[in-house]
Amino acid sequence: MTRVYVYDTTLRDGTQGEHISLTVEDKLRIAQRLDEFGIDYIEGGWPGSNPKDSDFFARARGLHLRHAHLAAFGSTRRPGIDAGSDEGLRALLMAETPVVTVVGKSWTLHVTEALRTTLHENLEMIHSSLALLKAEGREVIYDAEHFFDGYRADPEYALDTLTAAREAGADWIILCDTNGGALPWEIEEIVARVAAAGHARLGIHVHNDAGTAVASTLAALRAGATQVQGTVNGIGERCGNVDLCPVIAGAVVKLGYDMACAPNLDQLTALSAFVYDVANLVPVDNQPYVGRSAFAHKGGIHVSAVMRNEHTYEHVDPAVVGNLRRVLVSDLSGRSNLSAAAAQMGISLDDNAPAVQHAVQSVKELENRGYQFEAADASLELLLRRQLGIWTPRFTLLGYRVTVDHRGDAQPRADATIQVVVGDRAEHTAAEGDGPVHALDRALRKALQPFFPDVQRIHLTDYRVRVLDGTQGTGTQVRVLIESADEHGAWTTVGVSPNILEASWEALADSIEYGLARQSGEVVAAARLTATAGEVAQP
Fold first, then answer.
1. What's CA 478's distance to the chain center, in Å?
2. DSSP states of 458-486 as a string?
């Protein structure tokens, strides 16, 4: 079984992506998590290029990595400068990492136009830089930048650059598709040629500008590469680096390669979510293998088949990568969808019961009015339990009133009064808030607090409004989605109305109802079905 090594550059190449900024503390946390997962090499940054990376390497000396080797990244010496006098190479050595990764030019265009030097001098720059680092006892990885463009332009010179690196003692030679424009069959053919030319211990570093980075990386492995470089979730400059999540899953599950992280493959989804969370990025639901929608089934025919045999519409078992099968209920659903979703909620249904067909029809009608239950699992469960007569409401609304007071330049304030019935008691309370929904939320909690102290453990974490039909102007239907959480997880509820406050109330009331039921142990499903970025539900 071929051993493939994984080199992660999330902390360096990944941070070059738009909207991505990691603090030193963030980078240290991610490095620790990558090590726990079983990544072989972790590239920490470019020492000397900025204070943050220098600080990272200073603090990284205190990391207790059990498996991974930390790498510092830099470039070959400058033209006309002795390697021993080059400030960049000295910074690499001062980082005191066991591994150094050096990038050099493979494309004649870059040598003459970007470096403005001769082809011969470029070869000398590669050789002298790597030889210096090897003499200092470092493991040296050579990144051949723009290699595939360079090979197409002048294959002989591109191979000469690799020879210079190999003769200088490079431990690895990495072929880089820096522009991300090479196609998988091109990469497979060129990697095979390089391997046939006698260059061993090859790696692949691909960007995703053509949308084929994962396929190109797997093709390179088939052609003889044994190291893959990329980032978790594919973050990086322009269209990003190759996403290590599908690369690792594909290499282990599909191609049968041996990786140090293979025993931890069921933590892949958790790793993806962790990096999204630390980087403050919104997870990509349809991300292969680890996305929330990767194993989500919506069409009735699909659901019916997959519940009989998961292989009908799933290319791998979601548990292998730590993900979950999800059944979505919408206007496209049939009884099989509802039954499968109910089973995940702990509710057993008789598909032939009239109540089940009535529930299916209710879902379709509500979805036609603008509700979206595939994004609001908690509201779906409440709807289903109400339809089946297995739900006792904790409170009943008698009425509410909300006013907004805006005087002069002062910040507007909202006041809400609410009257609810709990058991045989009516509660009439009022509260003030920054806005009408905030005031209504505070008033409801105030009314329920004497009966349900656990209401204070429920927190509203997100509030989203969507206009469903702009042709009606300010009188159009609006959909409100509210995400709430407690110490165990998160859940989402939905409300729809031409009145934004009424839609908000509907979602808010469901949210509190469901949260209280979670606290009492009556329901448990939503935490499993709706995992937050910081926690990934286990099957």
1. 29
2. -EEEEEEEEES-GGGGGGS-EEEEEEEEE
Identify the pLDDT of residue 535: 32
394-445 pLDDT tens trace: 999 999 999 998 877 778 889 999 999 999 999 999 999 989 999 999 999 9
Q: Write down the domain spans for the chain.
A: 5-278, 296-388, 396-529
Question: Among 95-109, 128-142, 248-262, 329-343, which is the least confidently predicted range?
Answer: 329-343
The whole-angstrom separation of Cα 215 and Cα 536 is 27
Question: What pLDDT score does 408 carry?
Answer: 72
Q: Kindly report the CA angle at 9 between 5 and 14, in degrees rounded to 5?
A: 145
Q: Considering the entire predicted model, what is its pTM?
A: 0.73
User: What tens digit of pLDDT does each residue of 29-50 get?
Assistant: 999 999 999 999 999 999 988 8
> β-strand 172-177 against 139-145: which pairing, if any?
parallel
- 167 contacts 127 by C-beta, under 8 angstroms: yes
How far is residue 519's CA from residue 60's CA, in Å, rounded to a whole number? Answer: 41
List of residues 6+ apart from 11 with CB closer than 8 A:
22, 27, 30, 31, 42, 43, 44, 45, 56
Strand, helix or coil for residue 185: helix
**Start-to-end Cα distance in the chain:** 29
CA-based nearest residue to 489, from 526, 446, 516: 526
The alpha-helical segments, DSSP class H, found in 197-278 are 213-223, 244-249, 268-278
Reply yes or no on domain 396-529 having CATH 3.30.160.270: yes
Residue in 451, 440, 453, 348 with CA at minimum distance from that of residue 393: 451
User: Which CATH number describes the domain made up of 5-278?
Assistant: 3.20.20.70
In Å, how far are 4, 170, 201 from 224, measured between CA atoms? Answer: 10, 17, 9
Helix (H) or strand (E) holding 417: strand 413-422
Within 73-212, where are the H helices? 87-94, 108-109, 119-135, 147-153, 155-167, 184-196
Lowest average pLDDT, out of 88-92, 196-200, 326-330, 399-403, goes to 326-330
**pLDDT reading at 539 higher than 70:** no
Q: Which residues of 2-11 are buried (b: 16+ CB within 10 A; e: fewer)?
A: eebbbbbbbb
Query: Over the stretch 489-503, which tens digit does the pLDDT of each residue have?
Result: 889 999 999 999 999
